[in-house]
User: Which sequence fits this backbone?
């Protein structure tokens, strides 16, 4: 909810393609809940994290420097993807 203003800002079509080039490094970890989707038997973290995927793509398109791969976690799997992603992130940072 609170990330909405940030997401809307970066989604503006009026930004130049190099808005973030050389100025902004980022990493995105999406946390979704596939329990909220209709077909719970075949859904994955990728299916419930569209906003994170779009945000990551948009930051990249604006010239942002991605410092870690996109992480996608799912509440249905008890967010088991979060700890390995965080550990990997910090190992890259040190």
Assistant:
């Amino acid at each position: 909810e609170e990330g909405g203003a940030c997401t809307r800002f970066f989604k503006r079509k009026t930004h130049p393609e190099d808005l973030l080039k050389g100025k902004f490094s980022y990493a995105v970890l999406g946390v979704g809940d596939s329990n909220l989707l209709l077909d719970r038997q075949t859904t994955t973290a990728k299916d419930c994290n569209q906003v994170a995927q779009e945000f990551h793509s948009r930051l990249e398109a604006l010239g942002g420097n991605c410092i870690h791969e996109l992480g996608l976690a799912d509440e249905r799997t008890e967010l088991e993807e979060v700890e390995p992603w965080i550990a990997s992130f910090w190992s890259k940072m040190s």
Q: What stands out?
A: The beta strands are 25-26, 29-32, 65-66, 71-74. The first strand starts at residue 25 and ends at 26.
